[in-house]
Design brief:
Layout: H1 6-16, H2 34-49, E1 53-56, E2 62-66, E3 77-83, H3 96-112, E4 120-125, H4 136-141, H5 161-167, E5 185-193, H6 198-202, E6 206-212, E7 214-223, E8 227-228, H7 240-258, E9 264-273, E10 279-280, E11 283-292, H8 295-315, E12 319-327, E13 331-332, H9 335-348, E14 352-357, H10 363-366, E15 371-377, H11 393-411
Parallel strand pairs: 3-4, 3-5, 5-15, 6-14
Antiparallel strand pairs: 1-2, 2-4, 6-13, 6-15, 7-11, 7-12, 8-10, 9-11
Helix pairs in contact: 1-3, 3-11, 7-8, 9-11
The protein binds (2S)-amino(hydroxy)ethanoic acid and manganese (II) ion (2 copies).
One manganese (II) ion is lined by residues 83, 94-95, 128, 192.
C-alpha cells in the first residue's frame, strides 16, 4: 500500500520552522513579512524540485500541481493545502503541516505513478491568521473577498495591507484577480492539527471535521477623558480603561450565559491611550472576538454585546464605538469528502471520529466553491497558538497517510 515518507516530511517541517524561528522555540512568521517571503521562496523551490508545476496568484497564494499549470474549469483539480503564515509566537505545525503533508502526498503519488483521473494541487493560502483580514488568500480564491475594502485593511498595529503587500512585491488592489474559474476545483481536503484536546483525550488518531466555526471580530473603542493620575479626584475621573475592563468581564459572562453552549469569546488585543502610568486613560481599544457554529447565534450575541457596551459607557459617562472588523461564516463540510476520509482511515486501520472545528480554517471558504473537508490529528495537550504547540511524529505520519489515501480516492 502506498505510504508517505515521514523522514522527508519531517525534514521539510523542520526546515520551514526555521523561517521566523524564535530563540526559545516556536515561530513568528506573519503574512508578507520578510521571514514569510523567504519561506514562500523556499516552498516554491521545494515544489519545483519535486517536479511539480508551481505558481503564485495575485493574492499571494502559492500552488504546486501534478498534471496542471493553473486551476482551469476544463480540468478540475483535487486540491489540498493550508497556510505558512503564523500567529505571533506560534507553533511550527499550525498551517505548515497541511502544506507540507500536501506536498509530500503529491510527491509520493508522482513517484508511485499512482493512477488518478484528476490533476492534483497543493495550496499555501495567504494570511490565514488574518493579520490584515482573516482567511485573506482563500477568500480571494473563492471569490468572497470584498476588494473595495482592501485600501482600508490594516493590522491592529495600524500597518496597512497595501503597504505590506507592496513591500513583498504584490499589488493588493489586484488580489481579486486570484478568483478561481468556476468549477476548477473538484474537491478540497485539508490536513490540520486539532489545536484542542479532544482527539488526544479520546485516544483517536484522526478527526473527520463535519463543521467549522464562524469567527466575528469587532473593535470596541471607549473614549473618556485623560487626566492627571494624582490630582484628579476619583469620583470625577472618566477612565476609559476601567470601562473597557468592565465591558470585557460582563461580555464574557453574557456570551457564556446567552450563547449557544459552544459560544466562546476573547479579548486578545488591548490598547490604552496615551499609555503612561501617570495619566488617567483617555481612550481604551479592545478587539472583541466571538465564535459559534451557528450564524444566527453570533448575530444575536453581537447585538447584545453592542447594547452592553453602550450601557457600560453610559453608566461611566464614557463614549463608546463598536466597529465590526470581520465575520467569517460557519461552514458545513462535504459528506462525500468526509466519507473519503473515513474510507482512507479504514484502509489504514486508523480509528477516527467526527468532530466540529472551534478554530477557523481556509476550508470554510473552499466549501463555497467545492466539496471541502478537513482531517485533524491530535495536538499534544491540546496546545496551539503557543510556542510549545506540537504533535507526535507518529500522529503526523497517520494524518499524512490519511490525506494521501483521501486524495487518491477523490482523484478517482
Ligand atoms: O484563529 C483560528 O481559529 C485559526 O487558528 N486561524
Ligand atoms: Mn491554522
Ligand atoms: Mn492558527
Amino acid at each position: 500500500m502506498i505510504q508517505i515518507r515521514l523522514p522527508r516530511l519531517r525534514s521539510r517541517i523542520n526546515a520551514l520552522a526555521g523561517f521566523g524561528a524564535l530563540p526559545g522555540g516556536g515561530v513568528t512568521r506573519p503574512a508578507w513579512s520578510p521571514s514569510h517571503e523567504q519561506a514562500r521562496a523556499w516552498l516554491l523551490a521545494e515544489l519545483r524540485q519535486t517536479g511539480l508545476e508551481a505558481w503564485v496568484d495575485a493574492a499571494g497564494n502559492v500552488f504546486g500541481a501534478l498534471g496542471a499549470r493553473a486551476c482551469a474549469s476544463d480540468t478540475p483539480v483535487i486540491l489540498t493545502g493550508s497556510h505558512i503564515d503564523t500567529v505571533p509566537e506560534g507553533g511550527i505545525l499550525d498551517g505548515a503541516l497541511g502544506v507540507l503533508a500536501g506536498l509530500e502526498c503529491l510527491q509520493t503519488i508522482r513517484e508511485a505513478g499512482a493512477p488518478r483521473r484528476h490533476p492534483l494541487a497543493v495550496a499555501a493560502w495567504t494570511d490565514e491568521e488574518g493579520r490584515y483580514g482573516s482567511l485573506f488568500g482563500s477568500r480571494a480564491f473563492c471569490g468572497n473577498l470584498d476588494v473595495a475594502r482592501i485600501p482600508e485593511m490594516a493590522a491592529v498595529d495600524g500597518e496597512r495591507l497595501v503597504e505590506a503587500m507592496s513591500r513583498a512585491g504584490f499589488d493588493a488592489l489586484r488580489a481579486g484577480e486570484a478568483q478561481a474559474p468556476p468549477g476548477s476545483v473538484a474537491a478540497y481536503v485539508e490536513l490540520h492539527i486539532e489545536q484542542g484536546p479532544r482527539l488526544e483525550e479520546a485516544g483517536i488518531a484522526i478527526g473527520v471535521v463535519e463543521a467549522i466555526v464562524g469567527v466575528r471580530r469587532s473593535r470596541v473603542v471607549f473614549t473618556g477623558q485623560a487626566d492627571h493620575a494624582g490630582t484628579t479626584p476619583m469620583e470625577r475621573r472618566r477612565d476609559a480603561f476601567l470601562a473597557a475592563a468592565d465591558f470585557a468581564l460582563q461580555a464574557r459572562d453574557l456570551v457564556i450565559a446567552r450563547g449557544g453552549g459552544r459560544s466562546v469569546t476573547n479579548f486578545g488585543v488591548v490598547h490604552v491611550h496615551p499609555g503612561a502610568s501617570n495619566i488617567v486613560p483617555g481612550r481604551a481599544e479592545l478587539v472583541h472576538e466571538m465564535r459559534d457554529p451557528e450564524p444566527d447565534v453570533l448575530d444575536r450575541l453581537a447585538a447584545e454585546c453592542a447594547a452592553l457596551a453602550q450601557r457600560v459607557a453610559r453608566e461611566r459617562r464614557i463614549e463608546v464605538e463598536v466597529r465590526p472588523m470581520s465575520a467569517t461564516k460557519p461552514a458545513r463540510c462535504s459528506p462525500r469528502v468526509q466519507a473519503a476520509i473515513e474510507e482512507a482511515c479504514g484502509t489504514l486501520g486508523l480509528k477516527w471520529q467526527r468532530l466540529s472545528s472551534a478554530a477557523g480554517h481556509d476550508a470554510q471558504n473552499l466549501t463555497l466553491i467545492t466539496e471541502a473537508g478537513m482531517i485533524f490529528i491530535p495536538s499534544q495537550g491540546g496546545r496551539s497558538h503557543r510556542v510549545d504547540e506540537m504533535s507526535d511524529w507518529e500522529a503526523i505520519e497517520h494524518g499524512a497517510n490519511a490525506l494521501l489515501h483521501s486524495l487518491l480516492a477523490l482523484a478517482n
